[in-house]
Write a structure and sequence with these properties.
Elements (H helix, E strand, L loop, with lengths): L3 E6 L6 H10 L4 E5 L1 H11 L9 E4 L2 E4 L1 H12 L6 H17 L4 H8 L6 H26 L12 H16 L8 H11 L2 H9 L6
Parallel strand pairs: 1-2
Antiparallel strand pairs: 1-3, 3-4
Bound molecules: glutathione.
Length: 209
Amino acid sequence: MVKYRLIYFNLRARGEVARQLFALAGEPFEDVRVEFDDWFSIVKPLGDMPFDALPVLEVDGEKIAQSITIARFLARTFGFAGKSNYEQAVVDSVADQYSDFFPNVRPFLLTLLGFANHDLDTLLVEKVRPARDEFFAQMTKLLLASESGFLVGHTVTYADLLLAEHVSTFKQYDPHYVRDWPEIQEHWAKVRAIPNLSKWINDRPESVY
Ligand SMILES: N[C@@H](CCC(=O)N[C@@H](CS)C(=O)NCC(=O)O)C(=O)O
């Protein structure tokens, strides 16, 4: 049996989609959560992590870095990456689109964690919401064309997890975040209702985001 260790911080952030893929697949994994102090004083100086950042996934001791690459690897391994070669490409394109969108919300998230010092309300109005509108319009187009209610094809993929997890994070701080986006709200509810996932969400450790 393959031994998986996911090494990250006690955050959902860039580690959560990988954890959710394990939950969806019902696959055991070691959920290693490094304290920030230990990361900076002990783990990072060792130089053992491929690009000196987390998350890192160990597969029988072999390391993989980059959160989207980890998610894609697990999704392909467990069957949540799209059913055909074409579907896989579309799923990957959604993940890339999410990566293009993410820098717009990153300062907000860094401020929440205390690693930056911006005014959250200003960021929400001037940066996050305009970027959200563009990204949600793109995702809504996919959902309106979908027969299943998932972004691509007929089953849940890691692209659905990326979108739903983003929505969860920002609903916490902006209760009306999806008010004007009914398809995104419906998609979020559909993804979160998947039994293995909703069990994980209920049982997982608490974290800021
Ligand atoms: N593009 C990378 C970014 C990795 C990254 O920036 N990780 C942050 C936490 S979310 C980190 O390890 N920060 C601590 C450091 O850089 O020392 C990914 O998606 O995995």
